[in-house]
Design goal:
Blueprint (H helix, E strand, L loop, with lengths): L5 E6 L3 H13 L2 E7 L7 H17 L4 E3 L5 H9 L5 H20 L3 E4 L9 H15 L2 E2 L8 H10 L11 H8 L10
Parallel strand pairs: 1-2, 1-4, 2-3, 4-5
Amino acid sequence: MVGVEMNILLHMCCAPCTTYSAGRFRNLGYDIHGFFFNPNIHPYLEFVKRMQTLKNYCESESIPVIIDGDYELEQYLRAVLDSSKGRCRACYSLRLEQTAKTAASLGIPCFSTTLVISPYQDHELLQMEGEAAANRHSVEFIYEDLRPGYRESVNTSRQLGMYRQPYCGCVFSEKERYFKTPRGQSDA
């Protein structure tokens, strides 16, 4: 692949994860086109901070980016609450499905996601959902394990003074950050 430039639509969850991910895909020979579609992010002000930080970063790095600025929290909640797959898998499916669909509509032959940099994400599920979405839209999902670059992305984003979020973005992970079941009680 190196030496051959190919377009890729890169789903971007946030600017900090994009710092390393975009560079790595460029080094692999891809011409990066960004895509921000993250209806899972809660609350709305968090959504806006992440979106604006990503816009600013992509502009500074000359990365064209499509921003889906619609705040579709209800769509996300319906998808994850009605899913028998589990909330994270349903969330991956929702976001990667939209990315694959957008790539196909733009004539971009492949897509990936910056979620693959996170040591906190389920990479097996990401790969399965990415490949399933790719098959439905006749594009290719590029899975690249970018976890070795996670520390570098953290350091780069701090050096650039970027807004760094303290949780994945969904209301469920926000709850898990703060709410601890009192000793002796279950959450069932």
